[in-house]
């Protein structure tokens, strides 16, 4: 065999793998032909002849079982090799329904294969297949139940989107120097006709896993833009998830919504997490630059809880740094938390970023943050997330100054 791990060439009559071996690679044929062979008793039987474009060796990568057949070249064969780790990673990210289908199909194929082999040695085909079916039900019963539950939750979330059960609540972001409301963060909630208010922790994970977060995200941008028309000067923050960043037309779609609905894109801030920044830094940097070109601002949310290096911050077009509420909560009791907050405020200032403290709940926290030079605060001290009508009233009324 010659070539690197991706592109490989096998000479004529080469045995690429044997029946019964563990499988760690699948192949796509680019040139040449080969045969798939199985042992039936003492006989070697060709069960398939493959050529350019055909894939083989994939079964063992999907279900982690031994090879059920061998592969031998009939001529010089050029292949593209696909490693086991790559396939497993893709399967883990795939829809669980599709993954279950693949495992079930492979399971039935392997049991049928075993049944035929037993028949070659005198066993009953009917008995072997019947036994295989019973094992199949036992093997996949629990996973089928999980998948059924997954489908039910996805269907319920689809209904929520279609029947307009998803509503935006807004939490105020307040200027610590002037006590004025700078704007709000838009937060999604589900109001079920019988279950009532459902918190995001109960459905956001499913929305991301199913991909429904994509249409939900576009709905949020549209509704925020319409609200901005009723609150002049208000800055509105919108969260973007890692799943949304997988969409190749994300920036284009957001740009179209802003062009049609937004009175001033400069008053829109998109919040992302550290994990998004580090997932694919070059690609994310390019997407954020395109997003900034629309006129919006970019904030990094929950900063300090992820795994990015401070040195990475300067390479991204970040305008606002939001300090995670876990540090704010423990400032008074944990000197290390206090120093982390102080350092993050200084870091943001040196990088000419605005800084927002999240999870602010007490007057003592407000005063400490103001003394350290923090620009803005967000949390229950000022307001819990509230519906749109209350948001407009709250913005017009403003917040009282902190007690002396």
Q: Classify the beta-strand content into a percent band.
A: 15-25%
Supply the number of structural domains.
Answer: 3
Strand arrangement within the widest β-sheet reads 10-11-13-14-15-16-17-18
Helical region count?
Answer: 13
- Give average pLDDT, whole number: 85
Helix content: 40-55%
Going by CATH, the homologous superfamily of the largest domain would be EAL domain
**If classified by CATH, what would the architecture of the largest domain be?**
Alpha-Beta Barrel
Low-confidence stretches: 122-144
Count of individual beta strands? 18
**Which fold name corresponds to the CATH topology of the largest domain?**
TIM Barrel
Describe the oligomeric state of these chains in a short phrase.
single chain
Largest sheet: 8 strands, mixed, barrel
Class from secondary-structure proportions: alpha/beta
CATH first level of the largest domain? Alpha Beta
Distance between the termini: 80 Å
Shape: elongated
CA-based gyration radius: 29 Å
Structure description:
It is elongated, with a radius of gyration of 29 Å. With about 400 residues, it is α/β, with parallel strands linked by helices. Helix 3 packs antiparallel against helix 4 and helix 6 (about 215-230) runs parallel beside helix 7. It has three domains: about 1-90, Jelly Rolls (Sandwich), CATH 2.60.120; about 95-155; about 165-395, EAL domain (TIM Barrel), CATH 3.20.20.450. The protein has helices at about 60-65, 85-95, 95-120, 125-160, 205-210, 215-230, 250-260, 275-280, 280-290, 325-330, 335-350, 365-370, 390-395; strands spanning about 1-5, 5-10, 15, 25-30, 35-40, 45-50, 55, 70-75, 75-85, 165-175, 180-190, 195-200, 235-240, 270-275, 295-305, 320-325, 355, 375-380. It has an eight-stranded mixed beta barrel with strand order 10-11-13-14-15-16-17-18, surrounded by four helices.
């Amino acid at each position: 065999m010659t070539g690197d791990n991706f592109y490989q060439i096998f000479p004529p009559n080469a045995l690429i793998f044997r029946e019964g071996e563990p499988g760690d690679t699948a192949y796509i044929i680019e040139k040449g032909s080969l045969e798939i062979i199985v042992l039936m008793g003492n006989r070697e039987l060709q069960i398939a002849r493959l050529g350019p474009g055909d894939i083989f060796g994939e079964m063992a990568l999907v279900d982690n079982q031994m090879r059920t057949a061998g592969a031998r070249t009939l001529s010089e064969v050029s292949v593209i090799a696909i490693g086991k780790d790559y396939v497993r990673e893709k399967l883990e990210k795939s829809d669980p329904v599709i993954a279950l289908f693949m495992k079930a199909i492979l399971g039935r194929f392997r049991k049928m294969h075993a049944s035929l082999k037993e028949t070659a040695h005198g066993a009953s085909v009917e008995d072997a297949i019947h036994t295989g079916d019973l094992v199949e039900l036992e093997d996949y019963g629990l996973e089928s139940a999980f998948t059924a539950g997954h489908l039910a939750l996805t269907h319920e979330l689809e209904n929520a989107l279609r029947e307009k059960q998803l509503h935006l609540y807004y939490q105020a972001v307040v200027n610590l120097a002037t006590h004025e409301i700078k704007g709000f963060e838009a937060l999604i909630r589900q109001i079920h006709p019988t279950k009532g208010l459902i918190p995001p922790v109960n459905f956001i994970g499913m929305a991301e896993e199913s991909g429904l977060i994509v249409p939900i995200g576009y709905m949020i941008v549209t509704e925020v833009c319409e609200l901005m028309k009723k609150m002049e000067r208000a800055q509105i923050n919108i969260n973007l998830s890692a799943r949304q960043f997988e969409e190749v037309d994300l920036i284009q779609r957001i740009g179209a919504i802003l062009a049609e609905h937004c009175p001033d894109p400069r008053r829109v801030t998109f919040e992302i997490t550290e994990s998004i920044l580090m997932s694919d830094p070059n690609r994310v940097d390019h997407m954020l630059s395109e997003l900034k070109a629309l006129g919006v601002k970019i904030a990094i949310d929950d900063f300090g809880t992820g795994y990015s290096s401070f040195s990475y911050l300067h390479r991204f077009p970040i305008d606002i740094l939001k300090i995670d509420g876990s540090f704010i909560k423990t400032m008074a009791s944990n000197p290390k938390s206090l120093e982390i907050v102080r350092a993050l405020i200084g870091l943001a200032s040196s990088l000419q970023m605005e800084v927002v403290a999240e999870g602010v709940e007490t007057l003592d926290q407000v005063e400490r943050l103001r003394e350290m030079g923090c620009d803005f605060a967000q949390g229950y001290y000022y307001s819990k997330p509230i519906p749109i009508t209350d948001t407009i009233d709250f913005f017009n009324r403003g917040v009282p100054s902190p007690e002396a």
